[in-house]
Amino acid sequence: xxxxxxxxxxxxxxxxxxxxxxxxxxxxxxxxxxxxxxxxxxxxxxxxxxxxxxxxxxxxxxxxxxxxxxxxxxxxxxxxxxxxxxxxxxxxxxxxxxxxxxxxxxxxxxxxxxxxxxxxxxxxxxxxxxxxxxxxxxxxxxxxxxxxxxxxxxxxxxxxxxxxxxxxxxxxxxxxxxxxxxxxxxxxxxxxxxxxxxxxxxxxxxxxxxxxxxxxxxxxxxxxxxxxxxxxxxxxxxxxxxxxxxxxxxxxxxxxxxxxxxxxxxxxxxxxxxxxxxxxxxxxxxxxxxxxxxxxxxxxxxxxxxx
Amino acid sequence: xxxxxxxxxxxxxxxxxxxxxxxxxxxxxxxxxxxxxxxxxxxxxxxxxxxxxxxxxxxxxxxxxxxxxxxxxxxxxxxxxxxxxxxxxxxxxxxxxxxxxxxxxxxxxxxxxxxxxxxxxxxxxxxxxxxxxxxxxxxxxxxxxxxxxxxxxxxxxxxxxxxxxxxxxxxxxxxxxxxxxxxxxxxxxxxxxxxxxxxxxxxxxxxxxxxxxxxxxxxxxxxxxxxxxxxxxxxxxxxxxxxxxxxxxxxxxxxxxxxxxxxxxxxxxxxxxxxxxxxxxxxxxxxxxxxxxxxxxxxxxxxxxxx
Lengths: 307, 307
Prior knowledge:
CATH superfamily of chain A: Ribokinase
Number of strands of chain A: 14
Order of helices and strands of chain A: EEEEHEHEEEEHEHHEHHEEEHHHH
Largest interface: A-B, 44 and 44 residues
Oligomer: homodimer
Shape of chain A: globular
Low-confidence stretches of chain A: none
Largest sheet of chain A: 9 strands, mixed
Number of domains of chain A: 1
CATH architecture of chain A: 3-Layer(aba) Sandwich
Number of helices of chain A: 11
């Protein structure tokens, strides 16, 4: 069975939406990626760092979802990374209220010996140098997927470009793709980003779905139209976790199979936004995911009577 | 064979985009709808009005595309409706520079005797009272599709609601759906609009595609990702023309067949935006449309290895 190695934050979030607000709850890119990918019953491990203020029950939650946490360093006397944000009424935009890097500031990721041969590597959103360090510790992975955001384009562009040049797939949102490429057209943006290294470019458009590009091929997965988005936090990470989780489970990294992987990513992300934080992902059952896959088919599949 | 009756403007447009500008060129909702629907070789007719400044070559263009123009009134001494607009750099928004109603101000539509039994009726964007008048002149159509815009919501809401209560399908854009329903969620907006009369609600999202709703069923058609959108003028009308044209051609108004109709609408609209005005629609060949249908299939169709 394929092994999936995930690097990213394991953190505290405090979230405000038009529907309510939370205290410090479980968050972090690696948390969402791990919970999402765990749906595929693969052998996965998280590399991250937390402080000794991080509750054991959260670590147990990861373990109980078959996520190896040997690579999650617990810093004695340290405090866990904390992010706080408030979403606007349309839930498409948000303000960051507080960011406390804490133990993340000096994070030196250590990949557990037993995951250096991971065939699938997910570089979740983090400082590009941390992502690079993880890449240097793994042997010859079959597929490396990078997620990043505009913060690193603004602050560490050269380091980011180094990582981008070494990965197979990059997932970023539409505005970030435009910023990174200098192109407004997403078709042109994807082509320019491919020239920077990745063979595949995934552009996330939030409620407008996601595009997968490889050379002149393109695939589109819609977001499921929902009555209400409750909390978008972690949707992008959950999408990425579903994407790489499906690829790791099937072991097939063809463009055709990536189409399904994108659909599974959208499928899992559509659950993530239904409740605060990771709540919905914690009680998600396989039949629920299967049923929603059917909804995605109905939403997108058609047969014409002409031609 | 089914007959399609179209009411809407036949007009002059002057367009500015980041790529250039035009003099007065052929425009108008009925023009775009007619040219798009003509791809399906159906028996169609346009009801509209122009002044005697309207070039014969434009009327010939419609005739040469097998569009009956008996119902296009030519007002002696009158001037044709004129619209002028400038698109912003992202091509998603535009400013109206000039609107001259001219002969449209006193338009009394007359449906030709031979099209009163039309099975398919397309009410293109126009004053709701004109749309109502056309509806009153037709016998028992199989399907009536309404296109409208926020201008009528702002200025003639009660008249608009009367038309909405009498049609089978309404096509409007996302912001208009939100305005009309008072709901931000498009799922909720569609449900509220269905309660106003239409059995089917089509929400157009421009470059983000289109959604088709009927009760708890939903279908999504993406816009084709293009390297460059040259001129978006008429894309929504071309979409509507492709939608109803496909339905008229196949004679099947089931939800399943509407899925294909939406795809054909998106297909034809993707050509419309490639050149200024109606230029691309004039030289569009059937094989080109067929080839792009294949592109839409590649863009959206998938098969999973799990489940």
